[in-house]
Amino acid sequence: SAPCPQWPYCRQRCSYCNFNKYVVPVVDEAAVRACLVREARTLLRLSQVQRWVLGGILGGSGPFGACPQPPHPLPYSITSVFFGGGTPSLASPRTIAAVLEAAVGTAHLPAGAEVTLEANPSSAGSSRLAGFRAAGVNRLSIGVQSLDDAELRLLGREHTAAEAWGAVEAARGLFPGRTSIDLLFGLPGQSCGAWARGLEVALGLCDDHVSLYQLTLERGTALAGKVWGGALPTPPQDLLADMYQTARAMLVAAGFRHYEVSNFARKGALSTHNLSYWRAEQYIGVGPGAHGRFVPRGEGGCSREARVQALEPDAWMREVQSRGHGTRRRVVLSPLEQLEEVLALGLRTDEGITHERWGHFSPHLSLEAAFGAPGEAEALQQQGWLVLDGG
User: Fold this and answer.
1) pTM given for the model
2) Whose CB among 85, 156, 217, 386 lies 3.0–4.6 Å from 15's, allowing a Cys bridge?
3) Range of the domain at 237
4) Which whole-number Å values give the CA distances from 268 to 130, 209, 265, 343, in the listed order?
């Protein structure tokens, strides 16, 4: 299982962001910390992830049949932890350590398990990063977004290109081979040439993992308002496709494996945690607005549920304090819904969906039976859009 604690606070709101985040004058960090710890313990106990559950996917008869019990109880096992947000690098290392200690005390966190923290360059100084490393973090994901000051201003980022450069260099010193950077493309007015030049600069700075995201104009954001109001140009779809293909070619030429739609890694530095999403494994969302997918065996559940925690931090804290967790919504996923997720997520990766993984969710209908028969799938295979092979 993969816990995903969320720190919902930021110092300012970026012009393109519609995430569940909050800019407040003062954060009662001790109260938030206590609630993150309590909810992590509650949900880990509820999930009862056992070590016989391989990477979070149920063995036995799969998630649809009877609930097989392991031959003998073992400690719950966690495969990875990911601190997202918001800006979790604004939390103190003490808070990160407390959540990890709660996980270790409730479940089994193997030595060397990936523990990732998302960080903004403006809150990623060397001493702070060293504090996170001492707390148990061993991988960083830094929201660089751009190394051009004009683009950063357009995006409403609080850091400069120089600060981003310094933060990545400091991170690489502390987390060598385990520092990832995020970059955005498709900004209003951005040319393919400017994007390629910026990426070339980033390749001179980056470590062994890069995430590329096409800018999405989200309703209600300042940037979308300017574009839709005509103050900024709308990026043409063909240009966006050219930018993506250009970046893909540059990164592959630099030795990166394009292992997921938006993600590139070299020297085996794939994100274990994100792979658990794309492989449709179980994960536990902890904190305001967090999402989870797991089987609540602790209360006798046999089916995977989609869970969402209360969005607003104060309401979430009240619920955690009163009942141990702030789950607002829980929906039992049908077998078909689970298979749709296995497909939609697995097709994002270069490994695709293995027969073995499909079999965990569909023990009675094989991949061959589902997609090898005539019909729409056959047409997709003939056109080269779908490959069905021994893997």
Assistant:
1) 0.90
2) 156
3) 6-50+74-272
4) 24, 9, 7, 24
d(CA 263, CA 265) in angstroms, rounded, equals 7
Q: How many folded domains does the chain comprise? A: 1
Q: Residues 49-63: pLDDT tens digits?
A: 643 222 222 222 233
Element (H, E) at 2: strand 2-7
CA pair distance 346, 368, nearest whole angstrom: 16
Q: Which two tokens stand for residue 259?
A: 């292992």
Give dist(CA 40, CA 34) in Å, integer: 10
Query: What local confidence, expressed as pLDDT, does residue 76 receive?
Result: 59
Terminal CA-CA length for the chain = 24
CATH number at residue 111: 3.20.20.70
In a domain, 289, yes or no: no
Q: Is 346 exposed, middle or buried (0-12, 13-18, 19+ CB in 10 A)?
A: middle
Tell me the two tokens of residue 167.
Answer: 């933060």
Cα(346)–Cα(83) distance, integer angstroms: 23
Q: Which residues of 38-51 are buried (b: 16+ CB within 10 A; e: fewer)?
A: bbbbbbbbbbbbbe
Return the amino acid letter for 228.
Answer: W
Percent of residues in the chain assigned helix, strand, coil, to nearest 5: 40, 20, 40
Residue 388 lies in a domain: no
